[in-house]
Design a protein that fits this description.
This protein is an alpha/beta fold and 347 residues long. The chain folds into two domains: 3-163 and 197-221, Rossmann fold; 167-195 and 225-279 and 298-341, UDP-galactose 4-epimerase, domain 1 (Alpha-Beta Complex). It is 41% helix and 14% strand. The chain has a seven-stranded parallel beta sheet with strand order 3-2-1-4-5-6-10, with helices on both faces. It has a two-stranded parallel sheet with strand order 7-9. The protein has a two-stranded parallel sheet with strand order 8-11. Strand 5 (104-108), helix 4 (133-150) and strand 6 (155-160) form a beta-alpha-beta unit.
């Protein structure tokens, strides 16, 4: 039986990955600061900080495969944590895995390492060029993985596009809340930027496939059926049937307003949000198909609909305090006033 460690296994994607591994017959252990209410009793839990060497050494003991999902997300808005957790913690984990004789590490990175790409689609050979602190930290963590690979550790890097799926909240919880209540939602500019997402189930499948492949690789993950940001949101509004519409706002002025609101702690925006919301970014995934036999099941429209339906069904609990930014709806702050205005716009 394969013994797998999932760091960050109490977070949104980590907890889903734990479930998939258990269903596949793995003996699973979690390393996280917080335990999840929905953790199965047959999944071992190690409480601790990925920056603590003794804790990490104990967590990797006897482990065959490590899935590294610990990360401070952009909404955390803490530059020191972005560096010490995402970079230093990853490096410490890799060192411990090498000493413990771990056979494989699958590291979850981010498309934020590419910033605003000079051209699309982004290929495995595209040189990363992050534009904000989170992307820089995730790229530095990738460098730690590449360094570990040169020293003999089998490490694969998976870079997902923005993740959606049942239970995915955070900033998306605000979007779903507005649409459920019939408030109009916005795109920046005309919304013609092509924007690709990936369903958490598809990403979990890719991580499992990567864990079974011997030898380091870098793989980019996203759906193969997607369109523009406006098309995705208009499809969701039609699916919801609440009367919510998609409206355009000036891209530059709105981005500056989002940045100012975040700086005053009036709204839950991070730099990646105001930088990328009006930009195009999508991956070519032929290498994932050819190298791993992976085929995403969900389109942008399908994953938005599934995520929204889960939100509506579980709305009463989506704002409860939780350990993971992505398992709880972000606090709206001043956006509640904006929402009210969007509910009362003419036409």
């Amino acid at each position: 039986m394969t013994r797998s460690l999932v760091t960050g296994g109490s977070g949104y994607f980590g907890s889903l990955l734990v479930q998939r591994l258990s269903a596949a017959g793995h003996d699973v252990r979690i390393l996280d600061l917080d335990d999840a209410d929905d953790r199965s009793g047959d999944v071992e839990f190690v409480r601790g900080d990925i920056r603590d060497a003794a804790t990490v050494a104990a967590a990797v003991e006897g482990i065959d495969v490590v899935f590294n999902n610990v990360a401070q997300v952009p909404l955390a808005m803490d530059l020191q944590l972005l560096r010490t957790v995402n970079v230093d913690g990853t490096r410490l984990l890799l060192d411990a895995a090498a000493r413990a004789g771990v056979a494989k590490v699958v590291h979850t990175s981010s498309s934020a390492v590419f910033g605003i790409p000079a051209s699309n689609p982004v290929l495995p050979t595209t040189v990363p060029s992050p534009v904000e602190a989170y992307g820089h930290a995730k790229l530095a963590a990738e460098w730690a993985c590449l360094d570990a690979a040169t020293k003999g550790l089998d490490v694969s890097i998976v870079r997902p596009r923005t993740i959606l799926g049942h239970g995915r909240l955070g900033i998306f919880g605000i979007l779903f809340d507005w649409i459920a209540d019939g408030a109009d939602v916005v795109v920046l500019g005309d919304g013609s930027n092509r924007y690709q997402f990936v369903h958490a189930d598809d990403l979990a499948e890719l991580c499992l496939l990567a864990s079974d492949r011997t030898g380091p690789m870098i793989v980019n993950a996203g759906t193969d059926r997607f369109g523009t940001m406006r098309e995705s949101l208009e499809s969701l509004c039609r699916h919801a049937g609440t009367g919510s519409k998609v409206r355009s706002l000036p891209a530059r002025a709105t981005s500056l307003a989002m940045q100012a609101a975040a700086g005053l702690h009036l709204a839950p925006f991070a730099p990646y949000h105001w930088i990328m919301y009006s930009k195009s970014l999508w991956f070519d995934i032929d290498h994932a198909r050819e190298g791993l036999g992976w085929q995403p099941k969900f389109s942008n429209e399908e994953m938005f609909a599934a995520s929204y339906d889960w939100f509506v069904e579980h709305r009463a609990i989506t704002e409860q305090a939780g350990a993971s930014h992505h398992r709880t709806t972000a606090k709206q702050g001043a956006l509640k006033l904006v929402k009210w205005g969007m509910q009362h716009l003419p036409g």
